[in-house]
Amino acid sequence: MEQYLQLCRTIMENGTDKGDRTGTGTRSIFGHQMRFDLSDGFPLMTTKKTAFRLIVSELLWFIKGDTNVRTLIEEKNPIWDDWAFEKFVKSGEYSGPDMADFGRRAAKDPAFKEVLDHEMDKFRGKILSDDRFAEAYGDLGPVYGRQWRSWPDGRGGTIDQLKNVIESIQTTPDSRRHIVSAWNPAEVEDMALPPCHTLFQFYVADGRLSCQLYQRSADVFLGVPFNIASYALLTHLIARETGLQLGEFVHTLGDAHIYSNHFDQVNEQLSREPRQLPSLAIDADGKSIFELETSDIRVEGYDPHPKIKAPIAV
User: Fold this and answer.
1) Residues tagged active-site
2) Which residues are recorded as binding dUMP (predicted)?
């Protein structure tokens, strides 16, 4: 994962300090590419422990076309909870303590973090127990799963981009149209978070499948390690589905940034030596990509440095 560490160094040493939507502040560069040969091992970060189970359950959530955090909460995956919770606390139905700017406040104030954790636990419990509440506040709008599996075609129907791209890889492998887009301008304003990983394309050569992702906005410390592993996993799954060998994952970044409240964590990570990459194992004979469960997928030989905590910018 030296490519990732070099990206961090480049941003820290040569990036431009900028404001951002969250008010946190970032240091960023524009336009960067990393390439990962998937035959060299599974690119899961070793300089800090990265929660592979969360990566798997989120990706399968996308693949199944789901957009409601209830499914993720059932899997004990909190990745999207903050955006759903933000929707709730800004509603007229919320009557608890002031949760304005809760992400940054919790990072600085342990007492407030206890209050936030209590309110978040109540929120998760109600999402699981109350169908009306889950529909109102658990759904994130037409985010990734909706666009991948049910893109509105403008004629009252939908387009299953993921199913279509699998079929096109199988039937016309040399096509240059193996593309799935999550960026739907007509629905961006209805999404809890506009897609950061906006478009991916597959490429077949010499019986090997490669994938390139264009990511418009890249939270390099928290998000990018997940994105690398997620799209590497997607490439594994599509290769499995289409009977191809593994090629490369190519990660192209637009605005690649490190939040100002992540600088210390990045420096700590840069002080660590990378370790050997793990391997991926899929135990799901007879299951299609659309039938896979989190328990079907695991990594072997993963020996990372300890995790490094950092606040998410909402």
Assistant:
1) 196
2) 21, 176-177, 216-219, 227, 257-259
